[in-house]
């Protein structure tokens, strides 16, 4: 069965990272992981014909993104009357799956927004795509409180991906044969896929995106196996290529919405080979992604030896014992996570990281004072997360309850035992 890969998966561990880390995933890794906007798999799973490489230039500094001729397509014809009739929604999804074979290149400007409750994070990037594997994005604008961690430039040629963090003059190189770059920002190690067989789709008329006419297809999940609860695709009427997507899913008891929209787009304009090559600045720090892999440890002392900061010694409720630790360096810097568990399976995880931020996680949170320190508390379902920043380090205490046997007060007391 054909599936459409859209974005990195979100598990309960999303509660342990902040809004800026979410933005790293949503903005920087979307196209690196061959997301829908980066090229859809065909119905038979075959990649588009690579063809000969064009020598004309459409470099990051040049190229018209306001139009361009588009290829003929087999988009189902629409009845544009107001009587509710129109093209078959399933056929439109199928046409979107096949669009890759008729698209040689895509260039444009895209906005990515991640939303939970009243909180949202937005970034804008320039995009160059040459299916099936070559992609480049350059960050144009991002919210002020989310700046600093996201890569300024992301380039992949199908075998190697480069991430350039301009503010830190740092480069991360990932060999696809040795690593999974899409999970660079956290422990989110799988991708969500959209499987048409799990969806109930309907055609909801037409609209305009990036100055182009589109079909609007809404869908809801009709099986428990579907990873998305609902969503909408805005499918270009000429090329069948999705120009806008809005996806909603539930994670950790919260509803998350992700929206990707082209503000301007051009199809089949030749792109110079140099666009998909990257030469790190001579004075930049270059790291291999394969080196940025935290390890699991059986003792706290061994975990502490793997990071350049001291690990806390929390006062835990009776019955909790140390289970394991994960420590080392990832794409955001050094971090360590200590896991404690009781006989019922309820866990308390204490995490320290260099990706210090005093913002709240993407999930809705409330301010709370922990022994005189300003912190945030998040309580999805039976879980409790306390987060704060101290001396340029980010601390979290994350309680994962099995049978509702872990109270907010207990997690707060653990956090208070850590605050100095």
What's the structural blueprint in terms of helices and strands?
Elements: E1 4-8, H1 19-28, H2 89-98, E2 106-116, E3 119-130, E4 134-142, E5 153-156, E6 160-165, E7 170-175, E8 191-194, E9 199-209, E10 212-221, E11 230-236, E12 242-251, E13 254-267, E14 285-288, E15 295-297, H3 300-305, E16 321-330, E17 333-341, E18 347-353, E19 366-370, E20 373-378, E21 383-390, E22 393-400, H4 408-418
Parallel strand pairs: 7-14
Antiparallel strand pairs: 1-8, 2-3, 2-13, 3-4, 4-5, 5-6, 6-7, 9-10, 10-11, 11-12, 12-13, 15-16, 16-17, 17-18, 18-22, 19-20, 20-21, 21-22
Characterize the structure shown:
With 420 residues, this protein is mostly beta strands. Helices cover 9% and strands 40% of the residues. The chain is built from 4 helices and 22 strands. The chain has helices at residues 19-28, 89-98, 300-305, 408-418, and strands at 4-8, 106-116, 119-130, 134-142, 153-156, 160-165, 170-175, 191-194, 199-209, 212-221, 230-236, 242-251, 254-267, 285-288, 295-297, 321-330, 333-341, 347-353, 366-370, 373-378, 383-390, 393-400. It has a 12-stranded mixed β-sheet, with helices on one face. An 8-stranded antiparallel β-sheet has the order 15-16-17-18-22-21-20-19. The chain has a two-stranded antiparallel sheet with strand order 1-8. The chain is globular and about 65 Å long. It starts with a strand and ends with a helix.
